[in-house]
Amino acid sequence: MQQEFHRIKRLPPYVFNEVNAMKAKARAAGEDIIDFGMGNPDSPTPPHIVEKLVETVADPRTHRYSASRGIPGLRKAIAAYYERRFGVEIDPESEAIVTLGSKEGLANLASAITSPGDVILVPNPSYPIHQFGFIIADGAVRNIPVIPDEDFFTALDIAVTQSVPKPTAVVLNYPNNPTTAMADLDFYERVVDYCRHHKIYILSDLAYAEVYFDGPPPPSILQVKGARDVAVEFTSMSKTYSMPGWRIGFATGNKNLISALSRIKSYLDYGAFTPIQVAATAALNGPQDCVDQMRQLYRERRDVLIDSMSQAGWEIPSPPSTMFAWAPVPPAFSDLGSNEFAKLLLREAMVAVSPGIAFGEHGDGHVRISLVENRQRIRQAARNVKAFFGRYEQAAAGTEPRQAVVS
Q1: Residue 87 burial class via C-beta count within 10 angstroms: exposed 0-12, middle 13-18, buried 19 and up
Q2: CATH fold label, 47-285
Q3: Which one of 95, 225, 243, 383 is at 20 to 30 Å from 50 when CA atoms are compared?
Q4: Contact 110, 136 (CB under 8 A)
Q5: Do domains 6-44+290-406 and 47-285 have the same CATH topology?
Q6: How far apart are CA 92 and CA 83, in angstroms?
Q7: How far is CA 325 from CA 103, 176, 203, 376, 388, in A?
Q8: Is pTM, for the whole model, over 0.85?
Q9: Up-side HSE of residue 308: CA atoms within 13 Å toward CB?
Q10: Rounded distance, CA 241 to CA 235, Å?
Q11: What is the pLDDT of residues 268-304, one digit of tens each?
Q12: Band of the pLDDT at 15, cuts 50, 70, 90?
């Protein structure tokens, strides 16, 4: 029996699949693909975190079910982190919860607070779960701009005054994936003031809080007076401590939202494996030199990428934050769109990137480049790109068949 399922029908084919299939085929043929596609940290988890995991997993008592809200020690460590980093006091009992990465937390909170037809405001482009978490929950997503400027507030006001029903929540993500845009406290204060007035919840994704290069550290929305009346914030251990496969993160803020997420999770999981939670506690409470080293690593890779690609003829803005560069599709290829350009780049330069269309239609003029290859590989990628651009220019000038390059 073949049957179409309602929620599955609302999900478009995953845009990354086509590029991923091409990567797999090329690698099977022995091609050396320089992969900037997935934001998957390549550095090992710091040794003291791994050692704590190994120590804890040796105790068979930790092999039992854990707690879906997270062990008390980790929730206290989360509160200590917020106090130390942002000057914000968090009640670990009522204002913090451990999640299986920020992605799971966002998706489950979407399920908890969304009724069919509820309107949710989501930036476009954005990380896919920001939009599709609510679509899966039968919400109606309305797009707003990403850049935190006056146009954002104009669009926010139009969306609120013209949406029926009134929006339930607005999603924010700074430092932003994929655009790398950052927001300051003045922006957060205006958003909090507006959303408190209109009784709209705020879901802030702060997964890249510690991956910044220029200017002051990114703030938390919870630093704003009154933010906890409407806001909850998600953070991840994945990027800060190179723990992507460990699937551990947390949410803090508004008690009602934390309680709703806790109730949903109590039906769905028993929490992350206890040794992982103990190791995450060690990460938050332990030495933070590894975070400084992570930041320096991505800064160096960013600088090499921007410089070497510029020499190759691809001008890419230098990202102030995150582990990505948001690269405009070069003018010579703008008519292709981001997906076709990404496929062409993979086929002709052996360089894999993420097409901007995967993050929403307003991302189609860009591709996302992840800083997950070392500096030597980045320079090699730039040489490959330069050679490809040269062949394309020759083809465009009529010295060789253009169709052979783009087909």
Answers
A1: exposed
A2: Aspartate Aminotransferase; domain 2 (3.40.640)
A3: 95
A4: yes
A5: no
A6: 12
A7: 21, 11, 24, 17, 20
A8: yes
A9: 18
A10: 12
A11: 998 999 999 999 999 999 999 999 999 999 999 999 9
A12: low
